[in-house]
From TrEMBL, chain A:
Any one GO cellular component localisation term in the record: nucleus
Protein name: E3 ubiquitin ligase complex SCF subunit sconC
Alphabetical list of InterPro entries matching this protein: ELC1 (IPR039948), SKP1-like (IPR001232), SKP1/BTB/POZ_sf (IPR011333), Skp1_comp_POZ (IPR016073)
CDD domains membership: BTB_POZ_EloC
Gene Ontology molecular function terms on file: translation elongation factor activity
Entries under SMART domains matching the protein: Skp1
Family of this protein: Belongs to the SKP1 family.
Subcellular location: Nucleus
Organism: Penicillium ucsense
Keywords: Elongation factor, Nucleus, Protein biosynthesis
Domain SKP1 component POZ residues, every copy: 10-71
UniProt function note: Essential component of the SCF (SKP1-CUL1-F-box protein) E3 ubiquitin ligase complexes, which mediate the ubiquitination and subsequent proteasomal degradation of target proteins. Controls sulfur metabolite repression, probably by mediating the inactivation or degradation of the metR transcription factor.
Quaternary data: Component of the SCF (SKP1-CUL1-F-box protein) E3 ubiquitin ligase complexes.
TrEMBL record, chain B:
Limits of the DNA repair protein rhp7 treble clef domain: 140-176
Biased composition (Polar residues): 1-19
The name this protein goes by in its record: DNA repair protein rhp7
Gene Ontology BP, a term: SCF-dependent proteasomal ubiquitin-dependent protein catabolic process
GO cellular component: SCF ubiquitin ligase complex
Gene3D superfamilies attached to this UniProt entry: Ribonuclease Inhibitor
Region described as Disordered: 1-126
Signal peptide span: none
Annotated Basic and acidic residues bias: 41-57, 98-119
Regions of compositional bias (Acidic residues) in chain numbering: 62-75
A Pfam cross-reference name: zf_Tbcl_Rhp7
Amino acid sequence: MASQTDSVYVTLVSSDGFEFIIPRSAACISGTIRRMLDPASKFSEALTGRCVLETLNGVVLEKVCEYFLYNEKHKDQVNVPDMEIPAELCLELLMAADYLDT
Amino acid sequence: MSALSARQFNMASRRQASNIRGPRSALTDFLASNNISAVQIRDDYDRRVAEAARENVGEQPEQPEPEPEDVEMEEPSAGPTPETESPEDKAKKRKRQQAIERIKKSKDFARRKARRTGEPDDDDDLLADEIMNEKQRPLPGQLGNCEICGKRFTVTPYSKTGPEGGLLCAECSKKHASGEKKAAPKKRSAGIGRRQNQSALLDGLASQGTQSLLETCIKKVAENIADVEEFGDLPLPVMNRLSQILARRRAITSTTLDLFIRPQNREINIFDCAKLDTDDYHKILALMPSLNKLNLRFVTPMKDRIFEYMMERGLPIEHLHLDSPNLVTDDVWRRLFVRLGSRFRSLKLWNLDSAFDDETVEVMAKHCTQLQRLKFKHLHRIGDKALEAISTMKTLEHLSLHISQETSVEPLNQIVANLGSNLRSLSLEEFYYADDRLVHLIREKCRHLTKLRLAINAEVSDQALATLFIDWPNPPLTFADFHRTRDVDMGNPAGPEEPIGLASNAFMALMAHSGSKLRSLNVASCRHISYKAYEEVFSEHKRYPELKYLDIAFNGVVDDYLASSIFRCCPALTRLVVFGCFKIRDIKIPRGVAVIGTVGAKLTVDGITQKELV
């Protein structure tokens, strides 16, 4: 599906099957996802525009996507407050952030 | 006699009693001399209360009629009062009318009226009525009837006003408040939170955009460290960052320490051990058998037996970084070096004043045969002899010395002469007697330096430093620090003819030699660098692509023009320190640069102006 490579949106799939469709530019804040989706890489993710993230479950991935969009929204502002993160999620999210290189 | 009248009698007699003159305070006398009488004030108050209560009844005839004096009493109502026009009612009406007349003459009324003019219903009577109603509200401490549920309750200053203007009981207040919209969160404008801005700047956070998710999460974890049971498989850099944040919050205790002790890890970094005790160090050493790097700061309770345990276990420690282990005696230090010294690759010690003397350094120099990295900061008991001993350690590649005793020139020169050819980094701070000979030796011997610090000195001349950098076969430095190398003579602020310290020529030579690779440059207080030199160094076509950190504090010549030139020449700049540069008044700061230390300057960050308060 060559048409997917230049689509504005990409699909992120969690280990338990939740799908999140978000703008490519937002998802590419993550170094890992950016490299997955790099058209030059010829990874299947780049060709289909669909990343299956086996290490993240739906809850964490939802928060991650929230951060992507939060970052996108505030990238031109000064003194942006940190995004709210529920305490019980922060360690898992920390691992996810490390994995995703964001 | 009924209970009621007995009360009335009591109150009356009390009031009379208060007219009897007893001993009087100075305040009472003063008030009396100004025609103010406490008795009169209280009487007025009682009258007002009585009046208010009576009119309350006049307005709401279905309410039980409380006697003026017994507002505190809760008596079941004796049935609705008849609505016939009794003479009493007439009197009340007259009183109300009088009150309204009074209100119409009052200042408050005039003010409100002035505010209302222009509105269609400009009716004096309505307005007066409104004020009247407001005045009739029971005062705190009195009883009132809730506007919504009609219950009787004690009025407090916190009682809320209902939709019709009456007061509400506690329960209805709550319901009413929850129905109201919550106040919108306060918006931060650019001018507010200056302290926070400065704090973030000092932390090196550029104010643009959001922080990385990783950083946000680390902060959040640090906030909730008490609830964390285990870190799981956190990578080392993340652990270190957590350790730093926790240390800064002084949150590392015996319990949080457990999170950092992982038997499989080969290193541990705790940046604040002030709350740990001797047993905790034992725990670290006992539970981490493959420990290779032990980096502990503020280790005040570390004692001899910890070192002894370290020797007993024969831990494979190669990197020992300790800040202030002052309870460890010289004897044990020496035994440690004899026993484990041959393994050590790096040794960093800070803040030692009660132990660690010259002789210990000699033992160290003899036994640490593989040591590559040595850092002594603020060690009080070592001097020339220690420097001589260090000059024999041929394996050293990184040397950083900032000792507190005054030392002579020779041993230091010896160090550079003996070790210079091997050194990758050299940091010498506060060696007052170091002079041009040292600089010549550096030029002669050093060929592999990437980091050079020569700070706090008033002997080395500009000429010598300039000569050092002109055609120096050493590759470009990435780190240069010459802060506070300047002449200090109060009587002659412009300095001598021949400049002392890093001045114009040396600055230009340094930038010509190292500018292409320089990442960090500190020339704070190098006050003899001229405007011209700055202009030359940061002229239009010059570029310093790697320079990230620049400290030009107390270089008074730097003005808005030079600052903008600096921004233009250093595209990678993230931090510019400008304490005491008072000529910086109005600058446009590019995105991602933190400018620290401006006073009262107008800063424009990426088009957003921030006026600084002084």
